[in-house]
Amino acid sequence: MGQSGRSRHQKRARAQARLRNLEAYAAQPHSFVFTRGRAGRSVGQLSLDVRRVMEPLTASRLQVRKKNSLKDCVAVAGPLGVTHFLILSKTDTNVYFKLMRLPGGPTLTFQIKKYTLVRDVVSSLRRHRMHEQQFAHPPLLVLNSFGHHGMHVKLMATMFQNLFPSINVHKVNLNTIKRCLLINYNPDSQELDFRHYSIKVVPVGASRGMKKLLQEKFPNMSRLQDISELLATGAGLSESEAEPDGEHNITELPQAIAGRGNMRAQQSAVRLTEIGPRMTLQLIKIQEGVGEGNVLFHSFVHKTEEELQAILAAKEEKLQLKAQRQDQQARNIQRKQEQREAHKKKSLAGMKRARADGDSDAEDPGPPPEAEGADLQEEEDEAEYFRQAVGAEPDEDMFPRTAKRTRLTGRPGKKQQVKDRKPKEQRPDHSRGRGGDWRPPKSKGRPWGNQAKPGLRGAAQERRRGRPRQPKRVA
């Protein structure tokens, strides 16, 4: 059995062909068509129809949200290879159409005088030709009456030409040309007519009956006696099927075209059927950048040479002031950086010098612990002498170290005072009344009436808690 699948050379050739196709597709111009602001339903549908005209080199399912700004669209367009923006907007009085070249401009702003949607154009035709195969290739651009009418007209023509890929007339495949975009300029009214057509090529020199036989739908010959009647007179055919052809649309085909009877070097007629949309445009202004910049041309506002020079001088002065501020900021940043570096070097040098000199700027550690202990002992002796002589505690200002130690550890000599206290029997009995009778001590808490009377059990609990028992009453 032979080896199945493609060979190594076939795979390599297919990969190279695919790479060439990708490179050729990336080199072609691409576009975004969308609306800005509150455009309304009709203008939104018009943008979809214009997007249909620009297929397949446009984003057919592009969705632009209200919060997306023009800068967001420009940022996305760069990686995707988009070269043009076609933006439609609406105000209270007019509808506008902007054509932008990315990434540096210019921007052409048109006012849409009149427009007709695709559905309206198709509904007005008796027979229309529009199918999906027509939108597999970009349309053929035809510019009419774009002569020497000014630089703005020449710029318009260049912008429209750059919207679509260039065509080599010697190598183009006629089977890829299924649509035509016609832009006609009227020098008197300075308006543009935007028309979109479907192209059909049919052979000429044959009778209407022969053309009917060449079509896919075979005619009804039930009423004919012989086929010669169909070929000679075209009986049974309606007058609408016979379209007038003449020198304006008959040409000799340089190559065979898909369709019955369209052979090479044979006479064929090129017929156009409008499929929409339809627009009438008027150029308003041309700006230098993408949606902003200097106004290169304006249809309604005309400035003198002196005014233009004044505007350019003001912009130049503004740019110079901006450059001066940027230079000043750069110098300030450099100066602060140098100051920080110098301060850092000076600090490091001072630290090294201090280590070498024995750290003369260091904080005084104070006297040694032995001397501090001797001073504290001497101050305590003086405080004790003051207590014995006066009989009261000295003020904190007189002996601060002793007072601090007293607050932390208690007054010295307290244990000694406890030892020197008299025995219990020798102390005067202040718990007895004047008659010597015993009285219970006054309660600090609730009175006896609100408390439980102590009994044997309560006394046992108090002993367990370490409380002293109440002395028994002596008769």
Count of alpha/pi helices:
12
**What is the CA–CA distance across the termini?**
137 Å
Overall pLDDT level: 80
Strand percentage: 15-25%
How many E-type strands? Answer: 11
Name the poorly predicted regions.
Answer: 234-242
Query: What is Rg?
Result: 54 Å
The largest pleated sheet is described as: 11 strands, mixed
**Helical coverage, percent range:** 25-40%
Coarse structural class: alpha+beta
Order of helices and strands: HEHHEEEHEHEEHHEEEEHHHHH
Shape: elongated
What do these coordinates show?
About 40% of the residues lie in helices and about 15% in strands. The protein is built from twelve helices and eleven strands. The longest helix is centred in the C-terminal third of the chain and has 53 residues.
Could you provide a short overview of the structure?
The protein has twelve helices and eleven strands.
Summarize this structure as a short list of keywords or feature phrases.
475 residues, alpha+beta
